[in-house]
Amino acid sequence: MNQKYQVLQALAESKVVAVIRGESAEEATALSRAAIEGGIRAIELTYTTPHVADVFRALESENVLLGAGSVLDAETARHALLAGARFIVSPYFQEEVAVLCNRYGVPYLPGCMTIREMVRALEAGCDVLKLFPANSFEPSFIRSVNGPLPHVKVMPTGGIHLGNMKDWLDAGAVAVGIGSDLNKAYRSGGHAAVVALSQNYTRKSVE
Length: 207
Hints:
Blueprint: H1 3-14, E1 16-20, H2 25-37, E2 42-46, H3 52-59, E3 65-69, H4 74-83, E4 88-90, H5 95-104, E5 108-112, H6 115-123, E6 128-131, H7 140-146, E7 153-156, H8 165-170, E8 176-178, H9 180-205
Helix pairs in contact: 2-3, 2-9, 4-5
């Protein structure tokens, strides 16, 4: 199995991807470490976080799959790969990012909302598509998409929480992206609150 599909398999096995947005590199690092302690095995470090490369360096020794999110162009994608990202995520499909990721055998998960966008991303070599924002859809949307496009794999992100994540997974989501819950937990209860919430997500994903 090549490196790209090893990463895709790891994402599918993790079921939960923590989307980390920090107001600083220090906050993002602390959030990530708490999520990892709580059992989450896949972390998406967003490029909206200041000095995000420092977060990649801080986490490079952790036994976790690191990816980059909020990637808007090929230059940022290349920076992320050099920083240690093993998958790239963006809020919409960007052809130049797809070309770069294909060149280096790295999974690219672009945000898609329509069948047209999904087909375009598939034709560009994307294996998993991010449904974003997922709170604009119902979990049954995946089955509707899989009618005409049975091979499409979807990772819903945006509006995913403990109350609906299992619905999405049961509907066929390859994994779910969570984020705002972690930030709220961190700001209200710090490290321990994020660890506890991450444990709940991890348990829920295997029920």
